Each structure stands twice: as structure tokens, then as C-alpha cells.
Amino acid sequence: MARYTINQVVMLTGIKAPTLRKWEERYGFLEAERTSTNIRYYSDDQLKKLLNIGLLTRNGYRISKIDKMSETEIHDIITNKLVGPTQENDITALMVCMLELDEYGFDRIIKQNIVNRGLLLTTLEIIYPLLGQIGILWGLDKVAPAQEHFVSNLIKKRFYVAIDLLPPPQPNAPALILFLPEGEYHEIGLLLAYYIAREKGCKVYYLGANVPLMNIPTLVDSHDMSGILTMIITPLGELQHQVLDELLAAIDLPLWISGNLNILKDDFEGKRVKIIENPYHFIECIEGLF
């Protein structure tokens, strides 16, 4: 069972520390645990409860009324009335679904957002902020790898479904190679690029994660390609830079790189690459191919 300090709970729920202390004094739904040195901490179950309570209070429910609600009543209100109206509501509800491994609830919220917002806005306004929250938990060592993989795979499933529903590209459409280099495994950003490229009418050769760079020239030589996109989050080592230089020397195509802009601008300054700053920039690059 994970333990959360009061500062960590404040960061994850948005509920201020004085408010938490006041609730603990006045109401029965919250009672922090104590260490041997009398320092407050909160359990996984208490964090999930506080995420839900924070969601209710942000939507006008008085804490005195929430105190009298059962867990079932709280769940029903959130599920039937609050999920959907605001971005913050949905991100909080998705966090709870992750902690509870609630596949049905998680999938329902993501699908509802895709219907209402489209896949691009759902990714930018819901999925990316959610992954940021999960990253906070990961950094605090408060989320299990199984929970992170659970969420990632549900999200990836939604991308594959959306891509499968797109019409096939025209035979003469521009063709792109999309891949993550060796050591890069987080595909959600690349899958968004896959969807965008297909939605704009491109052929896409999607290679996935952890692809050796020197495999790319062989594919370029055997097919008529219009461009290559990769994403880099972690800084490249000296050997990886050498391999990238060899790749650039072996191909005569636009090489687009996105990911961690803080390292990209330093690592690739002066090289024959184009830094893609955001999905809308990528759309501009694709439209230039037609």
C-alpha cells in the first residue's frame, strides 16, 4: 500500500492542506494515518476518495452533504452527472479509474471525449494532462508499473480503433515512415502522428518503438517515401548521434523529429532535420507534401 504525504495529496487533488485538516477535524469520511513521529499520511483508498470528493466540491456539492453520502452515491453522481462537463472532471475521473483498474469506466470516458472533441483535442486536452498526472505519481513512486501499462494500453487501443476507421489512402498519396529509435518506448505521441497523417490522406509505414536507426535506409531504398518522423524524449548519447549522422548521410528525405523540445534544439542544431514543435506544426508539414 502506497503512502502519500499531505503535500503530495495537495498536488494530486488540488485540495489545500488547511482544508484537508479542517475536514479531518469536522467530518467522519477522512482520518489520516500517522507515522511513529506523528506525521500525517494517506493511503491509496483515501487518495481515491479525496479525488472523488474534490471533483464533487468543484462542482458545487457542499462538504457537509458529501459527508453523509455512501461510496455508492458518490460513484453514481460522478458517473452519471459529472463526467464530461469539464476537462478537469474527466482527468480526475480517469485518475480514479487507473487507481481502481476500472477498464470499463476509463474506456467510456475516453470514447465519450473522442466523440465530443475528436481524437486530436482529446489527446491534447485530456490524455496528455492525464499522463502528466500519472508522471507525478510515477515520480513519487506511488503508481505501479502495471497501472501505468494498463492506462497506456487502453489509450493505444483507442488510437488503433480510430486509425482503422479512416478510409484507405489513395495509391499516389505521400508515404511516411514513423518510428521511435532504440531506447524510446512511449508510443502515444507517435500514434497521434500516425492518426494525423492517415487522416490527412498519407500512406504510413508505422514501425513502432525501439527501432534501430540503420534499418531505416533499407526501407527508404525499397519504397517511394516522402518523409520520416521520429520522436525523442531522452537525450542521445555519442554513439546514437553518430548513428543519426550516418542515417542522414544515407537518405535524401525530410527527417522530422519531435518530442522533448528542450533537448531537441540543443542536440540537433545545425543538422539536416526539422524540429516538429506540436501536432499542428506536423499538420502543416504534411499538407506541404500534397
Kindly name the structural category: alpha/beta
Give the N-to-C terminal Cα separation. 54 Å
Ranges with pLDDT <50 over ≥5 residues? Answer: none
Radius of gyration, CA atoms, in whole angstroms: 23 Å
Categorize the overall geometry. Answer: elongated
Count of runs of 4 or more consecutive helical residues: 14
CATH class of the largest domain: Alpha Beta
Summarize the structure.
InterPro entries: Cbl-bd_cap, Cobalamin-bd_sf, DNA-bd_dom_put_sf, MerR-type_HTH_dom, MerR_fam, Meth_synthase_dom. The chain is an alpha/beta fold and 290 residues long.
What does this structure look like?
The chain is elongated and about 70 Å long. A hairpin with a 5-residue loop joins strand 1 and strand 2. It has three domains: 1-82, Multidrug-efflux Transporter Regulator, Chain: A, Domain 2; 83-165, Methionine synthase domain (Methyltransferase, Methionine Synthase (B12-binding Domains), Chain A, domain 1), CATH 1.10.1240.10; 175-287, Cobalamin-binding domain (Rossmann fold, 3-Layer(aba) Sandwich). It is built from 14 helices and seven strands. The mean pLDDT is 82. The protein has a five-stranded parallel sheet with strand order 4-3-5-6-7. Strands 1-2 form a two-stranded antiparallel sheet. 58% of the residues lie in helices and 11% in strands. It is α/β, with parallel strands linked by helices. The chain has helices at residues 6-13, 17-26, 44-58, 63-66, 71-82, 87-100, 103-117, 119-139, 145-164, 188-199, 216-222, 238-250, 261-267, 279-287; strands at 33-34, 40-41, 175-181, 203-211, 227-232, 255-259, 274-275.
